[in-house]
């Protein structure tokens, strides 16, 4: 992977990317409110479960397929996998998050000098898929910038994990050092999550994370909250 591709990947996974990632807790706010998550060990268990049941089994395999569809200029496959990911989101909050982040990333790409000229950003079918999930824009940008697929998956995985730990630090609250220890505990297993996601068959893609779905549903009517989901 070239230096420019590496640094553009860092831009895509940066917490400063203006797509509003910091405004979502994916149900964790309710999980903290009701006592499911109380300390750093609970955060690790919660996130480890999501890695196995959702991120590694659904998001990363779908991201890989969106990446290949972008490379092959296959808008039908691109739209299919964007639709598939959105259909797997169990609550209105989680679906709204997918669409809001997808639309926000599309707006960012619209304003980048080289990306603004990509034909995909001008065509309705592509834009509809891009507006359904952040993964679509992420995959398109990585394919266009020649980011290696495995590194793209690793980058997205780390970005998701870091954002969730930041959420936990704010909500529980955890100390910054506790948050870093949680991230460190995951560092040895993330590469294996990516490699497994790259060999998942189409028929095996899916998510089963009932605790997150319950927490997200209850968060929709939570009286006092900091996060949008």
From TrEMBL:
Keyword Iron-sulfur attached: no
GO cellular component: cytoplasm
Superkingdom of this protein's organism: Bacteria
Molecular function (Gene Ontology), one example: nickel cation binding
Subcellular location: Cytoplasm
Record-linked InterPro entries: UreF, UreF_sf
Keywords (A to Z) from UniProt: Chaperone, Cytoplasm, Nickel insertion
Family: Belongs to the UreF family.
Function as written in the Swiss-Prot or TrEMBL entry: Required for maturation of urease via the functional incorporation of the urease nickel metallocenter.
HAMAP family recorded: UreF
Subunit structure: UreD, UreF and UreG form a complex that acts as a GTP-hydrolysis-dependent molecular chaperone, activating the urease apoprotein by helping to assemble the nickel containing metallocenter of UreC. The UreE protein probably delivers the nickel.
Name assigned to this protein: Urease accessory protein UreF
Organism for this UniProt entry: Alcanivorax nanhaiticus
Gene (UniProt): ureF
């Amino acid at each position: 992977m070239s230096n420019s591709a590496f640094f553009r990947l860092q831009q895509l996974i940066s917490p400063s990317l203006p797509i509003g990632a910091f405004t979502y807790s994916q149900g964790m706010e309710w999980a903290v409110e009701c006592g499911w998550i109380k300390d750093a060990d609970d955060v690790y268990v919660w996130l480890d479960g999501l890695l196995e049941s959702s991120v590694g089994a659904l998001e990363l395999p779908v991201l890989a397929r969106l990446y290949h569809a972008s490379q092959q200029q296959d808008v039908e496959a691109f739209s299919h996998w964007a639709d598939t990911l959105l259909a797997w989101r169990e609550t209105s909050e989680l679906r709204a998050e997918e669409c809001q982040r997808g639309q926000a990333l599309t707006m960012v790409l619209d304003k980048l000098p080289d990306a603004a000229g990509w034909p995909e950003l001008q065509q309705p079918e592509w834009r509809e898929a891009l507006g359904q999930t952040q993964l679509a824009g992420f995959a398109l940008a990585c394919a266009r910038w020649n980011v290696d697929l495995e590194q793209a998956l690793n980058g997205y995985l780390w970005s998701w994990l870091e954002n969730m730990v930041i959420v936990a630090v704010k909500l529980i609250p955890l100390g910054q050092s506790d948050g870093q220890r949680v991230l460190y505990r995951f560092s040895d297993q993330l590469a294996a999550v990516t490699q497994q996601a790259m060999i998942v068959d189409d028929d095996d893609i899916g998510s089963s994370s009932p605790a997150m779905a319950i927490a997200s549903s209850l968060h929709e009517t939570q009286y006092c909250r900091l996060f949008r989901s």
